[in-house]
UniProtKB/TrEMBL annotation:
<protein>
    <submittedName>
        <fullName>Tail-specific protease</fullName>
        <ecNumber>3.4.21.102</ecNumber>
    </submittedName>
</protein>
<keyword id="KW-0645">Protease</keyword>
<keyword id="KW-0378">Hydrolase</keyword>
Length: 654
């Protein structure tokens, strides 16, 4: 704890003093980290915690005394044991669907702890009852069939659900390092998150996972896992070209039973999928033996060695959107990935440049860059990518924790493309995405279309807590970045030039809704940019609004937005616990999910094609060809891409 506190104080953009304000805030964050859904601790326990520690955490930190964490370890162990006992007792007790019990639903911020142990026991009874009927309803849409299956198979299905819940409870205990490490980690993260939402504590596995997210290449076994309905860890995907792919002994659908690397062993029973991912990502686990249960029954043991392959999620491929008059390039940028192994390594900017070269061979009239759901990544890549579309000048202004302000400039002269650009964004476009989209908007180089962005304009770096890296790491917010006009998108996000309706409109998603987010401010501009002529978006807005108002699919989006808020996010209701009531509730939600899947364009105003270069590659790669066909279909059915195509076509026709 001392190492993290000293590092934060030295490097954080706006480190907070260790006082009573910190104590009360970290106390609440810590409890939420330990028991996010308020299902383990009860109010009696929380009251004792508060009485002893609410205003004392700052004093413990100043004294470098973390012994108080031991009581949370003990109480959490007791709580898990009580929950396990309550669940086991349900095996011999018939569930009560008479309506004597009540089910209550409310938004997360209104969740509360059970009063005592007895009310916790009742909670588990309600949970198993609800999950049982919910699962049956998802399997069959007829109430009579749900009641029939409940009568015939209810006991067996109930026991399976109890087993799954017991496994989930054991995940905390069974994770690498056990419950003691879990509690310590959650406290360190509470302290870090109080500084701002993006400052966190990382153990070695967390660090590798984060670096993989923003890396263009990864040393990997080539196995993606998921937790199936039975609570088992299943191989969901094997990456072509990887060690697992070349071995051919493993298949999608195989169940992991055991992982062994040198002296480290992970028994894959009642552990989280993240724990398995962390074990595989551990940089010390270069060779690992996988024990799996095959789909047809037998147990196999397979030894794999990591190989470096391209991270497929971090790649971009160009397409063209065509009608009889225009040919528009389309590029989805999934993240601002980079090569972490080399300071001059190539990442997303280089990949985009290559794809734009291919698009230019297709004689495109304009370009759509899709940054929806792009949570950011490397700021270096965002700066380089921004410079590719302007001749020269400042890209961003950064300010450090010591108040030092500097201007980041376009590292290269010249542009890779002179054609008009449209950038698609949404509420989940953040950080490096906002730096790039903001720079293009400020220079009048592109039209930004979609929903207001997330609002994260801060920069984080990872630092070891000690020289030997034995204590772990911290991802610390060290800078805030600003647009070339001196204003920051931090907290408020980027406002698109043309706003499109979204299912997530007016929903509390974004930086400004996160606890302890840094505020928005401005800095003085020292280097004036040479902006392009401002784009007249007024006629484009008007035409887009007319299309949207007469578009049945966008009308469905607006209605779904209201339903999503009222029937899911802000749902607050209570009803008697009966089979019919649960059935009706789950059916309504299933209907809502089905409506989400129907938000697509039936007859797009364009055709989607690969570039000539990509077509030649696909001839020799069957797996890539099948994936490509799915991507082409998803682009053609996307109402936002269709509207973006029409907007940029209007711009070209003006």
């Amino acid at each position: 704890m001392e190492a993290l506190s000293l590092l934060v104080d030295e490097l954080h953009y706006q480190a907070k003093p260790i006082d009573d304000s910190l104590s009360t805030a970290v106390f609440h964050l810590f409890l939420e980290n330990l028991d996010e859904n308020k299902r383990l601790f009860n109010q009696e326990q929380v009251n004792k915690f508060k009485e002893q520690d609410y205003l004392q955490l700052d004093d413990y930190l100043k004294a470098n005394d973390c012994s108080f964490l031991n009581k949370y370890v003990v109480e959490l162990e007791k709580s898990i044991a009580h929950a396990q006992k309550s669940l086991e007792a349900l095996r011999t007790v018939p569930l009560d669907f008479s309506g004597n019990l009540k089910l209550s639903f409310s938004p997360k911020e209104k969740h509360h702890y059970s009063k005592n142990k007895d009310s916790q026991t009742t909670y588990w009874k309600k949970k198993i009852s609800y999950e049982l009927i919910a699962n049956l309803t998802e399997e069959d849409s007829l109430l009579t069939q749900v009641e029939k299956t409940l009568k015939e198979e209810g006991q067996e299905l109930k026991n399976k659900l109890i087993d799954q819940q017991l496994c989930l409870l054991s995940e905390t205990t069974n994770q690498f390092g056990g419950i003691q490490k879990f509690v310590e980690k959650q406290f360190l993260n509470a302290f870090a998150n109080y500084q701002d939402p993006h400052t966190t504590y990382l153990d070695r596995s967390d660090k590798v996972s984060f670096e993989t997210y923003i890396s263009s290449n990864q040393a990997t076994f080539g196995i993606y896992t998921t937790k199936n309905k039975e609570g088992e860890i299943e191989i969901a995907q094997i990456v072509p070209g990887s060690s697992a792919f070349k071995n051919s002994e493993l298949e999608e659908g195989d169940i992991l039973k055991n992982l062994l690397s040198q002296n480290d062993e992970l028994l894959v029973s009642c552990v989280s999928n993240q724990e398995v991912i962390n074990f595989m990502n551990n940089e010390n686990h270069h060779q690992t033996t996988f024990k799996v249960k095959k789909k047809n029954g037998p147990i196999k043991t397979v030894k794999l060695t990591k190989t470096v392959i391209k991270v497929e999620e971090n790649s971009t491929r160009a397409y063209t959107l065509n009608n009889e008059n225009k040919r528009i390039g389309y590029l989805k940028i999934p993240s601002f990935y980079t090569d972490l192994e080399s300071p001059n390594g190539l990442g997303v900017a280089n990949d985009v440049a290559k794809e734009i070269f291919k698009l230019q061979q297709e004689n495109i009239d304009g370009l759509i860059l899709d940054l929806r759901n792009n949570g950011g990544g490397s700021m270096k890549e965002a700066i380089t990518l921004s410079g590719m579309f302007i001749d020269k000048g400042p890209i961003s202004i950064v300010k450090t924790h010591k108040g030092r302000v500097s201007t980041l400039r376009d590292p290269y002269r010249g542009k890779v493309l002179d054609k008009p650009i449209l950038i698609l964004v949404n509420q989940f476009s953040a950080s490096a995405s906002e730096l790039f989209a903001g720079a293009m908007q400020d220079y009048h180089r592109a039209i930004v279309v979609g929903s207001p962005t997330f609002g994260k304009s801060t920069v984080q770096s990872i630092f070891p807590l000690d020289e030997n890296e034995k204590l772990g790491f911290s991802k610390i917010t060290i800078q805030k970045f600003y647009g070339i006009n001196g204003t920051t998108h931090q907290f408020k996000g980027i406002q698109p030039d043309i706003i499109l309706p979204s299912i997530y409109d007016d929903i509390e998603r974004g930086e400004r809704f996160l606890p302890y987010a840094l505020n928005s401010d401005s800095v003085e501009v020292t280097l004036q940019p040479l902006k392009l002529k401002k784009i007249n978006t007024s006629p484009l807005k008007e035409k887009s609004a007319n299309r949207i108002n007469s578009n049945q699919t966008f009308d469905k989006v607006k209605k779904l937005n209201g339903k999503f808020k009222s029937e899911y996010l802000t749902k607050e209701t209570e009803y008697a616990l009966t089979v019919e009531n649960i059935y009706k509730d789950v059916e309504a939600f299933q209907h809502l999910l089905n409506e989400f899947s129907e938000v697509k364009t039936e007859k797009p105003d364009f055709s989607v094609e690969n570039t000539s270069s990509t077509k030649n590659i696909l001839i020799f790669n069957k797996d890539d060809k099948e994936l490509n066909e799915k991507i082409v279909q998803s682009i053609a059915e996307d109402i936002y891409i269709e509207e973006a195509f029409l907007i940029i076509t209007d711009l070209l026709n003006n």
